[in-house]
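INTERNAL AUDIT FORM
Audit reference: QA-55
Scope: verify that the stored structure record matches its stored sequence.
Auditor: D.O.
Record contents follow.
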Amino acid sequence: MKKIFTILLMAIVGLTVAAKGKPQITFDSTSHDFGTIKENGGKVTAVYSFTNTGDEPLTIITVTNGGCGCTKPDFPKAPIAPGAKGDIKVIFQPKGRKGEFNRSVKVKTNAGSGRKTLTFNGVIIP
């Protein structure tokens, strides 16, 4: 009986330790609809607000733009403290494009939960 209790206690402690010490990124929203925008109206920006809901500092490693020259991400380079908020901005240049568009960027962090995908869409008119 003592062995079973000891094993259960060690398992619970191990799970508790494993659950602590991790950052976690939680977005307010992962999508943005620009609606209808003009081709010659200049750049537009989508802002994705997030919170570090973990208990360790969150570091954004990369935000990829999918290889499109029309999309430029901007994100915090300094670590985000637990409970703190931040923004990832995605700047889109509609010049030279027309019609519907659906784009995405991928966010890689030290949270270890894989990459998060942020999407944006709209319609470009001349």
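Auditor finding: record pair retrieved intact. The beta strands are 25-27, 31-38, 44-52, 60-64, 71-74, 85-92, 99-109, 116-125.
Action required: none
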